[in-house]
Specification:
About 30% of the residues lie in helices and about 10% in strands. The protein has helices at about 10-20, 60-75, 90-105, 105-115, and strands at about 80-85, 125-130, 140-145. Strands 2-1-3 form a three-stranded parallel beta sheet, with helices on one face. Helix 2 (about 60-75) crosses helix 3 (about 90-105) and helix 3 (about 90-105) packs across helix 4 (about 105-115).
């Protein structure tokens, strides 16, 4: 069994796996990047009223991801970013919303062009579904889970597509 983890620059980046996969037995060196800071670690954006549509999309989540992307572009233009979502339908929806945002936000276009060419494109912006994001590293990764309630004020259905299948938990370790 893996005993310690050294690659993460902040403990929050491995905390989930440490707890749920390694039974909190990993030894994780303390971060040298500072304590609790919005710039480091993991933050959760709970969208309690988001609606999951049959077919695998969530407009509320996609809109929120676009807001996070635009905030990143404005505040951290020299930090790379990528977006990983659970399925291809949500990936396509987010790509459509990015195309719309490009029409009204030239700074977004400049940002995407910069990262397309910087470091020979090694850290270019991406939107990928979970199966295609393995091994990609960026300064910031936005992860979209897509799932939500199907009608307002109802419970989230406990059906998470391939994640519910045998060995589906492996997809969460990406």
């Amino acid at each position: 069994m893996l005993m310690w983890h050294y690659r993460s620059k902040h403990e929050d980046l491995i905390r989930f796996q440490n707890h749920f996969i390694y039974d909190s037995k990993l030894i994780i060196p303390p971060s040298t990047m500072g304590g609790d800071s919005e710039e480091f670690g993991v933050s959760n954006h709970y969208l309690g009223d988001s609606i999951y549509k049959n077919g695998g999309t969530n407009d509320d989540e996609a809109d929120h991801i676009i807001k996070l992307l635009l905030r990143h572009v404005a505040n951290y233009p020299k930090k790379s970013i990528g977006i990983a979502v659970v399925n291809t339908h949500q990936r396509d929806l987010i790509n459509d919303k990015i195309r719309v945002a490009l029409d009204s936000n030239p700074t977004l276009g400049d940002f995407l062009d910069f990262w397309q060419n910087h470091d020979e494109g090694l850290n270019k912006f991406f939107v990928k579904n979970l199966e295609n994001v393995q091994g990609d590293e960026r300064d910031v990764i936005i992860v979209g889970t897509v799932y939500g309630q199907k009608k307002p004020a109802t419970r989230v259905q406990q059906s998470f597509g391939p994640i519910n299948f045998p060995n589906g938990h492996r997809r969460l370790n990406v």
